[in-house]
Amino acid sequence: MALGYLFGGGVGSEPQGIELYESSAPVRTLYEEISGWTGLTPEQILRADLPEGRERRQSAGTIREAALAVAVHDLLAAAGLRPDVVGGLSLGAMTASCLAGGLDRRSLFTMLARTANAPGPRPSDPEEGMALAFVPTEEAESARPWRGRAHLHLAGDFGPVADLSQRIMMLAGHRTAIEELAADAPPGTIVPLPDRAIGVHSPLRRPFRDFISPHLAELPFTAPEIPLLSCLERRELRTADDVRHMFERNSTDPISLVDVYEGMRERDVRLGIVVGPSIPEGVLAFPFPVVHVESTEHIRLAVSQAYDLGIDFSFVGSGMQGV
Predict the structure, then answer these.
(1) Residues 57-71: pLDDT tens digits?
(2) CB 261 within 8 A of CB 159
(3) Is pTM beyond 0.90 here?
(4) From edge to edge, which strands make up the β-sheet containing 152-160?
């Protein structure tokens, strides 16, 4: 019985991890370590308002999200659960790479902190935005009202919703183009995301990619120790160069949750643990049972369900814990 971990993307704009931090000494130690690597205090990581400035805000939010994911992973490991395969979306793909042994923790978090210095938009640049598109499942390949429209890009595929009636796609583009598409499409088809001001996973992030690429070239990537699935195409990342290339492409290429969970299904995953809040609970269809984990009670539930399904437990330390 295989166990898979799915790490969501997104940016932790709301407070996260407070209950785990207050109830667990190892989590407090972890946050102190992350504080030393990033320059943010544990309080800033957990619950402080994100800083002003587009890239500084993005950087702090990704540190918050990744810190929670690593904390959940460690508490699950302490309870005897270790994944047989991991994967994630966007930031989650990078966190999964770290926890699979493809990059040490210090390097991941210092990289996330460095992104605060990425160049922001010029005054003349159009405002960017994101939207979710809800299309009928049986028409997912043909019913795409954004096709042929300028300044719009397919940025992600989250797959069918729980009742299989619709498929959720993510769009990135100029905010005016998104708003015009939403006005022209049938009601509820295109839902702009007002709090998303960066056109992630699209060509709009090319300046960011150019900024971070020299730093990524210096990071000590290594071959993953367990199967690590890409969210950029349906494949396993087996080498250090595979992981590095995924990091480089992550900001500009569209992501697919379907590629990750179908890869897990092919590897006989019987239980998926969705780490953190960015993949919403109960909304999407998965090809295996999933437990969403971001609190102590969720960890107990995950352990109980894993036991009921016959998942192997292991209390032996390993390099999976990172450095």
Answers:
(1) 999 999 999 999 999
(2) yes
(3) yes
(4) 190-193, 128-136, 166-174, 152-160, 255-256
